[in-house]
């Protein structure tokens, strides 16, 4: 992999060789998942091979990496049907940093540009590294009014909320949206996206998140430990986004919809079933479970039932960047740790000690121009 002449010479903690006046970066410093397990299995390695840059790909020198619940689940073996044969691998989805190199067909970015973005859930080379490779469709210019740390907290969560509310439920001005789990990164993004679409927004959240969800724009917030939570809401909703996906939140959420409404859960069963039965049989079993639930809820309540999965979407990311720039979208950061302390970052989340997003900071990936 080669780097532009202007940035050649020395890349700290990445192996470089020079040829015909060009510099080639072949390795990076990364946090590796060698096997599934607890936070202790994560290893920091200096000489992790960087794949060849594809035509539509961008090499990003990372400044900050948001830690997502998916990273912890992958570390524990979630998605093993897909990821186990590929171990050791680099985990991580979110990134904010600087463009270092462009694939031959990349049109929308320039070297040195400050960018942020996220990989899709199935990506096999993640972002816990001082250099990450993303498709140009997975990146947007980082708005100047947020730092790399703040930017790295947003894309995976906001794109998940976008997929549910904008792409699937197609929320419209004046509709009523309920976000179950409004205090998390996806929940807060969903509240802000729904408000920016001029919807009425209610949510459930923990006591400590009440102020935060109101600041994000929720007009109504109910503590999720309240008994008979359904009775707390006066009206029925057009859309319920359930970020929690427990049997009790599903039972409550589906009952709170009016006929023709959409219930969307982030906790679909496709991956879990594929992990038990393999990709083919598990995929078929998941399709059968989803179909049965869709029929059941349509007959019972007249509602649409969906499993939502984050999907990268260039137009959505552009719109997310615009909302950030306008001050309409933020995900609060609760904890910042160096990349090398990724295992501790996972522990902080597991102990539920981070009230806000946990972000890894990359301090030493400085390329020194010659
Ligand atoms: N399907 C997909 O593609 C996809 C994509 C992204 C995330 N997810 C999943 O969606 C979930 C949320 O992700 P995230 O990034 O938002 O996580 P997060 O930032 O860690 O937030 C989780 C939040 O859940 C809240 N919570 C826990 N139990 C609750 C309950 N019974 N009712 C209401 N709120 C409850 C907590 O709120 P308080 O702090 O207020 O207690 C916590 O802040 C995770 O399970 C994640 O794996 C799925």
Automatic annotation (TrEMBL):
SMART domains: PKS_ER (SM00829). It comes from the Eukaryota. Residues 37-360 form the Enoyl reductase (ER) domain. InterPro entries: ADH-like_N (IPR013154), ER (IPR020843), GroES-like_sf (IPR011032), Lipid_raft_assoc_Zn_ADH (IPR052585), NAD(P)-bd_dom_sf (IPR036291). Pfam families: ADH_N, ADH_zinc_N_2. PANTHER family: PROTEIN AST1-RELATED. This is Enoyl reductase (ER) domain-containing protein. It comes from Sphagnum troendelagicum.
